[in-house]
Design brief:
Number of helices: 11
Distance between the termini: 26 Å
Shape: elongated
Order of helices and strands: HHHHHHEEEEEEEHHHHH
Number of strands: 7
Largest sheet: 7 strands, antiparallel
Strand content: 5-15%
Structural class: alpha+beta
Radius of gyration: 26 Å
Length: 346
């Protein structure tokens, strides 16, 4: 327990230190670009901007902090010959790394919540706050449902009214079954009602007027607001709702499935980073090798991030199975880190 507290404390302090330093630098650079627009606002100003922007910035810099922090911690311990003393006392490197699992678990939970829940939500709020024009004036969007494709030329700020609606009903193979055009659609009493609407069925000579007809869809006003002001990231729970049909999205099923898996992969990232930092624990100040092995650990960490990003992009575009895209880099670099650890320990 004493060993776990000591090693865990050193690693945690270094990770948090790196996170604060990188996050502060990124926030300062971000403010250089956006300070004029933010300070000109009278509805929260700088404080509101930082509250909404900080989680997005932390999401971007946390992976780098998870690389640098453990390496700095192991360098510090190796420089004071603490690893030599621990090995002489009978503690293997495997045992020392296992003692860091509680810290890795805590970091994994925080990273999971930050990247998969907090950041996507606040990114949408920040986008709507900084640029409300899409939701308030146009709010146009495309969306996919299990019944087909929807296009709206405009939407109200509350999301309960659509203008210039086009509904393309398709079968399971994507073949067009019907096309509905409506001047507007209004959400009232839990249902959408079409206004100035016409239905056209391929193969029929004439279209049919369907003014006032109810439109059966899972689309809801909150969903409309989200579609009218899209964000780059999607929360895992939202992706799960889209895949189950309870929420409407505008991207492919492969994209959303990859996002679900990515949330779980984020939880595993600290475990892999600590394992990849292990080479930094094998150098000594007198014997040398500290710098070279630390550089190797950092290179492995950035290699992991690079491959992870590439595989994720391939999965989101449907060029790789979502599970492989989300967990491929974690599995490969986890195995590589374990092999390097075994080699160094022998």
């Amino acid at each position: 327990m004493t060993l776990a507290r000591h090693l865990g404390g050193v690693v945690l302090v270094r990770v948090l230190g790196a996170l604060l330093a990188l996050g502060g630098l990124a926030a300062a650079l971000d403010l250089v670009e956006s300070a004029a627009d933010v300070l000109a606002r009278d509805d929260g100003g700088l404080a509101r901007y930082l509250a909404l922007r900080a989680p997005v910035i932390l999401t971007a810099v946390t992976p780098v902090a998870l690389i640098v922090g453990p390496v700095l911690a192991f360098l510090s311990l190796a420089g004071r010959s603490e690893f030599v003393v621990l090995r002489a006392a009978g503690a293997t490197t495997y045992r020392m790394l296992l003692s860091l699992m509680p810290v890795a678990l805590a970091l994994g939970l925080v990273f999971y919540v930050l990247t998969d829940r907090v950041s996507p939500t606040l990114e949408g709020r920040l986008s709507a706050w900084l640029d409300p024009a899409p939701a308030e004036s146009a709010g146009a969007f495309w969306a996919r449902t299990r019944q087909g494709v929807i296009h709206a030329a405009s939407s109200s700020p509350a999301g309960d009214r659509l203008g210039g609606v086009e509904i393309y009903g398709t079968d399971a193979e994507g073949r067009l079954l019907t096309r509905i055009t409506a001047g507007a659609a209004r959400y009232d009493d839990g249902a959408w009602r079409l206004e100035d609407a016409v239905r056209l069925v391929p193969g029929e000579a004439r279209s049919t007027r369907i003014d006032g007809e109810l439109w059966e869809t899972t689309l809801r006003p909150a969903n409309v607001r989200a579609l009218a002001a899209p964000t780059r990231s999607v929360a895992g729970n939202v992706a799960e709702r889209i895949l189950s049909g309870g929420w409407v999205g505008n991207r492919t099923a492969e994209f959303y499935q990859t996002r679900v898996y990515r949330g779980y992969a984020a939880f595993l990232a600290p475990f892999v980073m600590i394992l990849l930092a292990a080479p930094a624990a094998f150098g000594t100040r007198r014997g040398g090798g500290l710098g070279g092995r630390a550089a190797m650990a950092v290179a492995l960490g950035f290699g992991f991030l690079l491959l992870d990003g590439m595989l994720t992009a391939l999965g989101e575009t449907g060029n790789l199975p979502p599970a492989l895209a989300a967990f491929g880099a974690t599995a490969m670099f986890g195995a590589l880190g374990l092999w390097i650890l075994i080699s160094l320990e022998e």
